[in-house]
């Protein structure tokens, strides 16, 4: 039985780093690298012999992955729910189409993939869900994004408890700013400064280490740890107000 890792968003900054770090794991035979961008997937295939490309627009559903699971009947050793999208701006400008696709990609797809993969998982399998420090408090101007990341975090933490009996570990990664293509360099004509930004490499190595340790949350930087404590101790209204004051100039 082939032992596979499934990584969504594997053509992006954090996802491709997951592929790179998992590639040397001898307990995994294949990495199903999921993304829409064929050229980037082809590049991964040329770099890592274990990569099996899965071209799929997940905002339209997970059929591509479900079909492959049925055909190959593998053991899913690792599922990384990483694909995600954001929207910086006023919610009222977002429009229903973007609202729906963000909810689908960031919330529905991770839950559906867990549901689909669980029958193929055994004791020792693992799930990493990528949330964000945006889940620590509501973030105006990233309104839908931060709400979606609360879903991922709560889903992940509760799931971890449910799956303990089966010996399946679940870790939720909550990075602060990460240096990837997701972050615009400027907005509203102004260069954006990202406090405490870290590399995808750090996010991924910490998430994999925290999964091995069975930790529920993975906080890969001082900034993420500090922000979590700060958001817990300070009134939400104050933390939101500070965030809104910083971000207002970009929208
Ligand atoms: N960058 C940050 O500061 C930061 C901080 C905290 C959390 N995160 C989270 O980390 C995760 C990865 O983000 P990243 O920073 O690595 O961003 P990224 O470089 O923009 O990568 C996003 C990935 O998601 C995939 N994706 C987007 N829409 C998709 C769709 N409809 N169907 C299938 N795949 C889709 C993209 O693949 P294709 O383009 O090939 O479709 C890409 O591989 C996200 O969940 C994000 O919310 C990021």
Kindly describe this structure.
Helix 4 (96-117) runs parallel beside helix 5. The N and C termini lie far apart (51 Å). The protein contains eight helices and nine strands. The strands form two sheets. It has a seven-stranded parallel β-sheet with strand order 3-2-1-4-5-6-9, with helices on both faces. The protein has helices at residues 13-22, 38-47, 63-72, 96-117, 143-163, 200-213, 222-233, 236-247; strands at residues 3-8, 30-35, 51-55, 75-81, 126-130, 169-173, 186-187, 190-191, 217-218. With 251 residues, the protein is of the alpha/beta class. The chain is globular, with a radius of gyration of 18 Å. Helices cover 44% and strands 16% of the residues. It has a single domain (3-250), classed as Rossmann fold (3-Layer(aba) Sandwich). The structure holds NADP nicotinamide-adenine-dinucleotide phosphate (NAP). The site of NADP nicotinamide-adenine-dinucleotide phosphate has 29 residues, from helix 1. Residues 9-15, 35-37, 40, 56-59, 82-85, 105, 130, 132, 175, 177-178, 180-183 line the site of NADP nicotinamide-adenine-dinucleotide phosphate (NAP).
């Amino acid at each position: 039985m082939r032992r596979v890792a499934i990584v969504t968003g594997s053509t992006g900054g954090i996802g491709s780093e997951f592929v790179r770090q998992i590639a040397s794991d001898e307990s995994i035979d294949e990495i199903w690298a999921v993304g829409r961008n064929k050229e980037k997937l082809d590049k991964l295939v040329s770099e890592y012999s274990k990569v099996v490309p899965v071209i799929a627009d997940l905002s339209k559903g997970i059929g591509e992955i479900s079909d492959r699971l049925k055909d190959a009947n593998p053991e899913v050793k690792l599922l990384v729910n990483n694909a995600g999208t954001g929207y910086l701006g006023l919610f009222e400008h977002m429009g229903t189409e973007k609202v729906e696709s963000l909810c689908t990609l960031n919330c529905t797809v991770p839950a559906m993939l867990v549901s689909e993969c669980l029958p193929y998982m055994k004791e020792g399998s693992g799930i990493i869900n990528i949330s964000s420090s945006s889940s620590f408090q509501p973030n105006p101007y990233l309104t839908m994004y931060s709400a979606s990341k609360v879903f991922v975090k709560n889903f992940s933490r509760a799931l971890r408890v449910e799956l303990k009996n089966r010996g399946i570990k679940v870790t939720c990664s909550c990075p602060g700013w990460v240096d990837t293509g997701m972050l615009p360099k400027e907005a509203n004509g102004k260069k954006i400064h990202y406090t405490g930004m870290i590399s995808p490499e750090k996010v991924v190595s910490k998430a994999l280490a925290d999964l091995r340790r069975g930790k529920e949350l993975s906080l890969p930087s001082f900034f993420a740890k500090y922000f979590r404590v700060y958001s817990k101790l300070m009134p939400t209204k104050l933390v939101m107000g500070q965030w809104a004051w910083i971000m207002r100039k970009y929208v």
